[in-house]
Design a protein that fits this description.
heterodimer; A: alpha/beta; Fumarate Reductase Iron-sulfur Protein, Chain B, domain 2; Rossmann fold; five-stranded mixed β-sheet; 9 strands; 8% strand; globular; B: alpha+beta; Uridine Diphospho-n-acetylenolpyruvylglucosamine Reductase, domain 2; Uridine Diphospho-n-acetylenolpyruvylglucosamine Reductase, domain 3; Alpha-Beta Plaits; seven-stranded antiparallel β-sheet; five-stranded antiparallel β-sheet; 16 helices; 33% helix
Chain lengths: 430, 483
């Protein structure tokens, strides 16, 4: 067999890159991915498109070019939103190229923000909750909106300032119970994944998830020893830490006798589903077992079949496809089908509904210029629908869309599908 | 975008280009120019000396004028989805990337035309027209990414061009920057402009006559209804006979596509539509128009298929099933990855009645070269796309694929057809031009190009062979993903 590229088709270089060279070859260079890529749609430079980035990575692997500063920037600008995987007719697994490439080839960030806030504080729900206490007081006193409205946040260190503008209204919600019983006949037993940031900022979504699952005949277990999914680490070149978290989740979930592990944050769901092949070495079998049981809450309810009575909710809403739900998990129709069940709810189609809003994990804290451009683009599309309620099944998107609306002085409500379903359940009970 | 320059373009020209479009819209470092060394055709590569991203017609005129003065080649490029190397900078020089000129400038529903910039992606126009009851008819399978400017350059087709015509039938006027930087408008949004059809010459000229900077396109009313059918045949011969019968009966389907057994296997594995795996071939037939006549046409098509021994004719029950059927067809190429690591899609045309003959020849060629060849194509207009499966890491297979491709295209010519239906000549098929055309035909084309592009600086090495040369020699067959 003739090797297409003798300089790299050796086991050593494969290890160095962490990429199977055949994945490069699966791209036939047709270019059909380009117009699906949010960053390409903004810069219109092929270096910022999926096809271009694959070409750059392969050229670096083939030693045709050096990994120079501009090339690094083009690769770092990628949101890893996977819209290109949806568009690709050849089934190129782009995520399996960009993720290991960035992990191995781009130096891990070493700044204080990454080391102390992103990697240490965020993944620990308890710690984060405590750290947010002052913010919650400030929020209840109206100080946060004051800081945002006056632009005082710009005086804070850059990323901290952005964090302040990202914070949603903070309210205290009681901790989740370790188990709740199904209402009526039991149809399934599931475990709920609660995550880190989501548990600190969106516990109301967790409560809505519990209620909605219960109402549809599910016993729900909430394991206390679970951890952050590891996505924040995995996507910023901290593979070891990510694997440690994955193994902690394996011990929390793998031995439970449940029909599914239900997740309500698309980003976490996508990461959990990839546990099986993110680290092919020791313990991959158990990680794969857990990954197979993972279901997004929309996907799970749609498969199980909705049975609970729903009441009228006369609202005009629009649905935003979170990248990690639509592109990474392929879940598009399930949330829409669930929302269509709600009497009185009118769903207005959103242009570019599956174009990234710029949140992309911690991207909106690191690639601020592009994140802002995409947020403005998303908000403009939302405003054109006329709806002032946006449905988003991912915590990161919710924060990003809310932030942009607040900055532009627009009143917008951003909710998770389960929150509308819960409201509709309550309406039926009244 | 701008970074360290290591281009061979003289500093004076480079700095003028940077003044024209702005520093950040010029790529001059080799590492950033590299992605522009090829398009959807990857057999031949050449890195452009500099890449510029203009925003206005005036900027393009200035760029072309500058290149004209200094004798530097200029080549326009859209989304780079050409399957024939239309965007390949053969002679190096300045690559003018039109993607930033992407706006839809005007939509006139009452006069049924729209004005778009060349970098507008084909499907964006269709999306913008939602709710007007109108659409832009040419729908290449790459429509989600390819640009209207590129469609004009290659006179693109698509499944629905059987009834609605190709790009040239839907372009009313173009604004063009000529070789010396002069800006002219050819054609007019009003119908029937008198005089020589210079617009007709411009469409499909692959950038050799000028750079199109604005396009007036015709808008077509959406059909009132559709009937989408799937006819299943035991043999390819029966299916191709049915095609000729349907067209012969005076029915003009909106689309008439064929998939043979090999493709059915791949598509079924990918999409689980429920295609019978033992069928020899299936036809995907769509009729559209006024609701009133559609049931009758559907009956006629069904009867004609049955007359040609169709085993079964199914009708898509609803819009969702229709979309699923079209998804299977339009994304068939992606599914081929399930059959083979590499593939090469050819593009040829034969008169419809010769379809059974060309498919027999393709089968024989496959046997002769020990290659598996599967077929999925726009059957209604005789535009075939045989797909040759191979492993690109095996040089012997690569060689056999090249020889088989050449033999199939020669057979198309022999049967009275052409070596390209819709991908264009680009650089890929330039070697066939002297087989397709007599020397006096080619001389006339050269004379026309000479009139527009006297110094040959616009898109050199494209479309027309240079005297004495027989085109670029191929070493490696292309693997294609979409048509």
């Amino acid at each position: 067999m003739n090797s297409p590229s003798p300089s790299v088709d050796t086991p050593e270089s494969r290890t160095e890159l962490g990429i199977d060279y055949a994945t490069f070859l699966s791209c036939v260079h047709c270019g059909l991915c380009t117009a699906s890529c949010p960053t390409y749609k903004e810069t219109l430079d092929e270096n910022d498109s999926p096809r271009g980035r694959i070409y750059l990575m392969r050229s670096v692997a083939d030693k045709r070019i050096e990994l120079t500063e501009p090339i690094r920037r083009h690769l770092e600008l990628c949101l890893d939103c996977r819209a290109c995987e949806t568009a690709c007719p050849s089934g190129v697994e782009y995520g399996k190229l960009i993720e290991p490439f960035r992990n191995r080839m781009l130096p891990a960030p070493r700044d204080v923000f990454h080391r102390w806030i992103l990697w240490k504080l965020f993944p620990n729900a308890r710690r984060l909750e405590r750290a947010l206490l002052p913010a919650r007081w400030a929020s209840s006193l109206g100080l946060l909106s004051f800081v945002r409205a006056t632009g005082l946040w710009k005086l804070l260190p850059r990323r901290l300032g952005r964090l302040v503008t990202l914070l949603p209204p903070l309210r205290k919600h009681p901790r989740l119970p370790s188990r709740v019983e199904a209402v009526g006949e039991r149809r399934a037993t599931v475990a709920l994944f609660t995550g880190c940031v989501a548990d600190a900022l969106f516990r109301d979504v967790h409560w809505a998830t519990l209620r909605v699952l219960q109402a549809n005949g599910c016993d729900v277990i909430v394991p206390k020893n679970q951890a952050c999914c590891g996505a924040i680490h995995y996507h910023s070149s901290q593979e070891e830490e990510a694997r440690t978290l994955a193994d902690q989740n394996v011990s929390a979930f793998a031995d439970l006798d449940v029909d599914a592990v239900v997740v309500n944050v698309a980003g976490c769901g996508a990461m959990l589903k990839e546990y099986g092949h993110a680290w092919p070495e020791d313990g991959a079998g158990k990680r794969a077992q857990l990954a197979q049981k993972v279901r997004d809450v929309n996907e799970f309810l749609d498969e199980l079949g909705w049975v609970a009575p729903l009441g009228r909710l006369p609202l005009q809403v629009t649905y935003h496809d979170a990248c990690h739900l639509a592109h990474a998990q392929g879940v598009r129709e399930a949330p829409r089908r669930l929302l269509e069940r709600i009497p009185g709810l009118c769903i207005v189609p959103l242009d570019e509904s599956d174009t990234c809003c710029g949140a992309a994990g911690s991207y909106n804290l690191t690639q601020t210029e592009m994140a802002d451009r995409l947020a403005r683009r998303k908000l403009q599309n939302i405003l054109r629908t006329g709806a002032r309620t946006v449905v988003s099944a991912n915590a990161g998107c919710t924060l990003q869309i809310l932030r942009q609306a607040t900055l532009e002085g627009i009143r917008l409500r951003v909710v998770h599908p389960v929150q509308l379903l819960q409201e509709s359940l309550e309406a039926a009970q009244q | 975008m701008a970074s360290t320059s290591d281009t061979t373009v003289p500093a004076r020209i480079l700095s003028t280009l940077q003044k024209i479009v702005g520093n950040r819209h010029v790529l001059s470092s080799r590492s950033e120019r590299l992605v522009y060394e090829c398009d959807g055709f990857t057999l031949e590569k050449n890195t452009p000396d500099v890449v510029v991203f203009p925003r206005t017609t005036e900027e393009i005129a200035q760029i072309v004028r500058l290149c004209h003065e200094h004798g530097v080649p200029v080549l326009p490029r859209g989304a780079g989805t050409s399957l024939a190397g239309g965007g390949l900078p053969v002679g190096g020089g300045v690559l003018v990337v039109l993607t930033r000129m992407k706006d839809i400038l005007e939509i006139h529903p009452d006069d049924r035309y729209a004005v778009v910039e060349p970098g507008c992606v084909n499907v964006w126009l269709s999306l913008a027209l939602r709710g007007t009851g109108l659409h832009y008819a040419p729908d290449p399978s790459s429509q989600g990414a390819c640009t209207i400017g590129g469609n004009v350059a290659t006179n693109s087709g698509g499944p629905h061009t059987l009834k609605y015509g190709v790009t040239v039938n839907h372009v009313l006027a173009v604004e063009v920057v000529l070789a010396d930087g002069e800006v002219v408008v050819l054609g007019s949004p009003a119908e029937d402009t008198p005089g020589l059809d210079l617009l007709g010459a411009m469409v499909g000229s692959e950038g050799t006559l000028g750079i199109v900077t604005k396009v007036w396109v015709r808008l077509t009313p959406d059909p009132q209804g559709y009937r989408t059918m799937l006819a299943i045949f035991d043999s390819v011969d029966d299916a191709t006979t049915a095609i000729s019968r349907i067209i012969g009966a005076g029915i003009i389907p909106a689309a008439l596509e064929m998939m043979d057994q090999g493709i059915i296997e791949a598509v079924e594995a990918a999409f689980q539509f429920g295609f019978p795996l033992d069928a020899g071939a299936v036809l995907l037939i769509e009729v559209d128009g006024l609701e009133a006549g559609l049931d009758r046409q559907q009956q006629d098509v069904t009867q004609l298929c049955r007359d040609c021994r169709a085993r079964e004719v199914r009708v898509a029950a609803d819009a969702r099933e229709r979309m699923r059927l079209w998804k299977c067809r339009k994304e068939a190429f992606g599914a081929i990855g399930r059959l083979s690591p590499s593939y090469c899609t050819q593009d040829g045309v034969v008169p419809r009645t010769q379809l059974p003959e060309i498919l027999r020849r393709i089968r024989e060629t496959g046997e002769k070269y020990r290659l598996r060849i599967v077929n999925v194509f726009h059957a209604g207009d005789g535009n075939i796309h045989p797909i040759l499966l191979f492993d690109e890491r095996d040089s012997d297979q690569v060689d056999r694929v090249l020889r088989a491709s050449h033999e199939i295209l020669s057979a198309c010519l022999e049967l009275g057809g052409s070596v390209t239906g819709e991908h264009g000549i680009g650089v890929e098929k330039i070697g066939f031009m002297d087989q397709m055309f007599s020397s006096s035909d080619l001389e006339a084309m050269h004379a026309l190009r000479q009139a527009f592009n006297p110094r040959g600086l616009l898109s050199p090495g494209k479309l027309l062979p240079t005297a004495g040369a027989c085109g670029i020699e191929q070493r490696h067959p292309g693997r294609r993903a979409a048509l």
